[in-house]
């Protein structure tokens, strides 16, 4: 897969994550009682996907050697359910195109 195609796919994944987060925000609101962090991790740091994420989207290398994407939905909220909805949409979309194992880390 060419680099430009990967960039387009990742941009689409971020847009879908944002839409999913906005939908969850309208359902749950920004409830401060249930806060948390959501991180998506691409395990294979040598993959083309990982290189695009690091170079084009400035995603940092994770502690386990993969690439971490914090809160891919991008909304400035504290609600765990909103962040989780965005992360799940992001992962589901990327898994359609890439063999790389992608994991959503949920922490609250």
Explain this structure:
The chain has one domain (3-107). The longest helix has 26 residues, at 3-28. A 3-stranded antiparallel β-sheet has the order 2-1-3, with helices on one face. It is of the alpha+beta class and 108 residues long. It has 3 helices and 3 strands; from the N terminus they run H-E-H-E-H-E. Helix 1 (3-28) crosses helix 2 (48-56) and helix 1 packs antiparallel against helix 3 (80-94). The radius of gyration is 13 Å and the shape is globular. The mean pLDDT is 88.
Number of strands: 3
Helical residues, percent: 40-55%
- Helix/strand order, N-terminal first: HEHEHE
Number of domains: 1
Rg measurement, Å: 13 Å
Task: Output mean pLDDT.
Answer: 88
Percent range for β-strand residues: 5-15%
Summing up helix and strand content along with how strands pair, one would put the structural category as: alpha+beta
In a few lines, what is going on in this structure?
With 108 residues, the chain is α+β, with helices and mostly antiparallel strands. It contains three helices and three strands; from the N terminus they run αβαβαβ. 46% of the residues lie in helices and 15% in strands.
Note the main attributes of this structure.
15% strand; 46% helix; 3-stranded antiparallel sheet; globular; alpha+beta
List the helices and strands and how they pair.
Layout: H1 3-28, E1 37-42, H2 48-56, E2 67-70, H3 80-94, E3 102-107
Antiparallel strand pairs: 1-2, 1-3
Helix pairs in contact: 1-2, 1-3
């Amino acid at each position: 897969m060419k680099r430009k195609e990967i960039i387009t796919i990742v941009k689409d994944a971020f847009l879908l994550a944002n839409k999913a987060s906005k939908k969850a925000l309208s359902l749950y609101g920004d409830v401060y009682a249930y806060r948390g962090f959501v991180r998506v991790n691409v395990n294979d740091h040598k993959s083309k996907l990982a290189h695009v994420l690091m170079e084009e989207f400035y995603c940092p290398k994770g502690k386990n050697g993969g690439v971490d994407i914090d809160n891919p939905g991008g909304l400035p909220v504290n609600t765990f359910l909103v962040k989780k909805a965005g992360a799940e949409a992001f992962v589901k979309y990327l898994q359609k195109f890439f063999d790389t194992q992608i994991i959503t880390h949920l922490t609250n």
